[in-house]
Design goal:
The protein has about 90 residues and is α+β, with helices and mostly antiparallel strands. The chain is about 25% helix and about 35% strand. The chain is built from 2 helices and 5 strands. Strands 1-2-3-4-5 form a 5-stranded mixed β-sheet, covered by helices on one side. About 25% of the residues are buried.
Length: about 90
Amino acid sequence: MTSALKDTGARFEMVEQGLTSFAEYRRAGDRIVIDHVESPPPLRGTGASGRLMEALSAEIQSRGLKITPVCGYAAAWLRRSETYRILLD
C-alpha cells in the first residue's frame, strides 16, 4: 500500500511497503528546486519514484508553483511527463 504524499518542509515523502521514497527540495521564490529523488533499493524498478514524482508534481501545481529540477531523475521524469512538463522552470 502507498501512503499519501507528506511534505516535511524539506522533502516530499511517500511510504510503500513500509519503505520511504523521498524528494529533497528547497523553495526559491515561486519555484521548488528538487535536489535529489531516491527510493530504497527494494523499491527500485517498481515505479515508486515515478509515483512520488507524480504526486509531488500535482501538489506543486496545485500551489501555483514551478519546478527547477537539479536531480537528473526529476528532470528526465518531468521532460517525459505530458501532464507536468509545463511545471519546468
